[in-house]
Amino acid sequence: MTTLPFYTAVKDDFESVNQLIMDQLHSRIPLVEKIGNYIISAGGKRLRPLVVLLASRACGMHDPRQHLLAAIIEFLHTSTLLHDDVVDTSDLRRGRSTANALWGNAPSVLVGDFLYSRSFQMMVDLGDMDIMRILAHATTVIAEGEVLQLTKVRDASTDEATYMNVIRSKTAMLFEASSHSAAVLAGADAEQTEALRQYGNALGIAFQLIDDVLDYTGDAATMGKNVGDDLAEGKPTLPLIYTMREGTAEQAQLVRQAIQKGGLDDIGLIQHAVRECGALDYTLQLARTEVDEAVRLLDCLPASEARDALQQLARFAIDRTH
């Protein structure tokens, strides 16, 4: 994955972050290291630490502290993945069995707690109260977003505003915290700091919107997770919400019933409905609008390879297949 062009600008930094991540997984309890290493070694795109590195570099920073911040962000993200998979009873992530599928729910939750706690130990090492404030706020908002989403499972009355609240909190918040804290660490001026904060928010929203499109159009082997996972869990994502609002009476009823009962009995019919009524196009257009805004926000930064990479990353949010 790191062969994508926007990694090139911070290739050496990225390798340092990966090593730091592995070093910080150390624990006196073997099972902690075993599960931690399993989920970290699954790789993924490491987009949030990448945002830290690119944003700090775009602000002119060349300092090992950015590696520590990037590792903190990845630990926070990984802890949420462990917890999410338990909440969602998921059995596949990044093309591999989830930790809870292999070791059970209790060890997964507890190792998630370990990674979350270790991230705050690392924040103390970083020694920047402003960054700790940003990240503490972010983790609170993310937890609230998770709970809000949980309360809307199998709730076919969920509207677009509530959905956007969920994804801003649950997904976009950590992207926002990544770019915002990187700007603060780099000592960027107020305009650049605010622009990068908003960039992370727009990028995160775009990524989640495309994830929700891919849930109906993607390929399980490519995505590394099961197609229709959200529908199976009864989650009312935007393609479904739009179909209930704008589709035919039959399409709306089909989706409503599918959300209320969960499962994948009608996945083929749902895929046809969300495509035919324009729900996927609508969701994709919203993502494009967020990406355009993300790219525009970078205009206040000086020209650099890192700024170009941030723009490429935003556009990748639309073009990706997983």
From TrEMBL:
CDD domains: Trans_IPPS_HT (cd00685)
Role: Supplies octaprenyl diphosphate, the precursor for the side chain of the isoprenoid quinones ubiquinone and menaquinone.
Cofactor(s) this protein requires: Mg(2+)
Entry keyword Transferase: yes
Protein name: Octaprenyl diphosphate synthase
Keyword annotations from UniProtKB, A to Z: Magnesium, Metal-binding, Transferase
Family listed: Belongs to the FPP/GGPP synthase family.
Top enzyme category: transferase
One of the GO biological process terms: isoprenoid biosynthetic process
Catalyzed reactions per annotation: 5 isopentenyl diphosphate + (2E,6E)-farnesyl diphosphate = all-trans-octaprenyl diphosphate + 5 diphosphate
PROSITE patterns to which the protein is assigned, alphabetical: POLYPRENYL_SYNTHASE_1, POLYPRENYL_SYNTHASE_2
Gene3D superfamilies the record matches: Farnesyl Diphosphate Synthase
GO molecular function terms noted in the UniProt entry: all-trans-octaprenyl-diphosphate synthase activity; metal ion binding
UniProt-listed Enzyme Commission number(s): 2.5.1.90
